[in-house]
Amino acid sequence: MSLTGGLDGSITFIDEQLEKIAMRIDNLRLAVKWKLCRYDIENMISFLEEYAKVQLPEEETHMCNHGYPLYLSHKEKHKRFTAQMHELREELLKIRPFGYKGSYELSVRTIQAVIDWLNEHIMQDDSRLSEFMRKNRHNKNEREDR
Ligand SMILES: [Fe+2]
């Protein structure tokens, strides 16, 4: 993820997140469709855990550095998403002793969690942050040009 890359430094990171997550959802959706989800769910959960561990704190650092006014509520949503991923991992660990690597139900819950995250967080909260950073950068550039 690059919060500072690209021309305006804001659209880039949302586009990157969307692209990565959309690709994963598509893979998992196909796995569910072809009833292969029990083999694919661990990869998806690992990907989401890594995303929560690396990308969300990175985003929080940028919010802090730019004095984002909605930092606390935004960070709280990251925390809830991270907890939700932890719950999915716990569910996966619970069915392991029975010889299952995944389940249809767990796959559906994971897909739902990711789709909610896309619609409610990335498309709304992250878009708002993106817009703030774009304006922030624009104002900073204007001040420097004077
Ligand atoms: Fe976010």
How is this structure best summarized?
This protein has four helices and no strands. With 146 residues, the protein is mainly alpha-helical. The protein has a single domain (11-145), classed as Up-down Bundle (Four Helix Bundle (Hemerythrin (Met), subunit A)).
How does this structure look, described?
The chain is an all-alpha fold and 146 residues long. It has one domain (11-145): Hemerythrin-like (Four Helix Bundle (Hemerythrin (Met), subunit A), Up-down Bundle), CATH 1.20.120. The protein has helices at residues 11-33, 37-65, 71-95, 104-145. Helix 1 (11-33) runs antiparallel to helix 4, helix 2 (37-65) runs parallel beside helix 4 (104-145) and helix 3 packs antiparallel against helix 4 (104-145). The longest helix has 42 residues, at 104-145. Bound molecules: fe (ii) ion (FE2).
